Amino acid sequence: MNALPETINAKAFSAQPDYDEAATRRAFAKLMPLRTIIIYCYDPRAADIPAAVAKEFGDTYPGQILTDEAGNEIGTDATVLNVVVAGGRAVDALRSITVAQHLFGIKNIVVVHHTHCGATSYTADGIIDAFAQEHGADISTIYPRESVCISDFGASLKHDTALIRRSAGTPPSVDIFGYLYDIDTGELTRVTEDRAAT
Questions:
Q1: Which contiguous run of DSSP H or E holds residue 114?
Q2: Which end of the chain has fewer CB atoms surrounding its CB within 10 Å, N or C?
Q3: With left for phi above 0 and alpha for psi between -120 and 50, is residue 88 left, alpha or beta?
């Protein structure tokens, strides 16, 4: 196995001799003014979801890359951060939400499920049984059953927005929304919302 050159690790912010986490966070927030996290499915047919959500929220997407005088890419003017996971299920995005909030200070979290999703083509029991038979693995306790598949879009979106709200990594100051995206029409429909406590 090849070791990484020392110059690679030297590019880690926390490896710098003058590292200051608070100052680094301020710099990240300035150079990447992200305000909306969009959690959606990795299905290629769902690729237009970020643009639809950005339009709905008045966000900038995909935005432009910002460079310094030397031409180094240092930031973006995009205000949307994409978290792409199977079925757009929130359980897979919780750590990303926590990290994004820490680095950027997020205002909106938007969960989007889509029609014709592969996550609607199986059941929790089905995938658990298949893994046991095909791979000899018991995955029955890895994920909450309610987060494994989608059988009802309204129920899955309400579950996921509630899951995000209950997470200690979600500050009470963020607004959380659940949308359904119609693959056939490109229509985005708000199904649920959980506004920040005032």
A1: strand 108-114
A2: N
A3: left
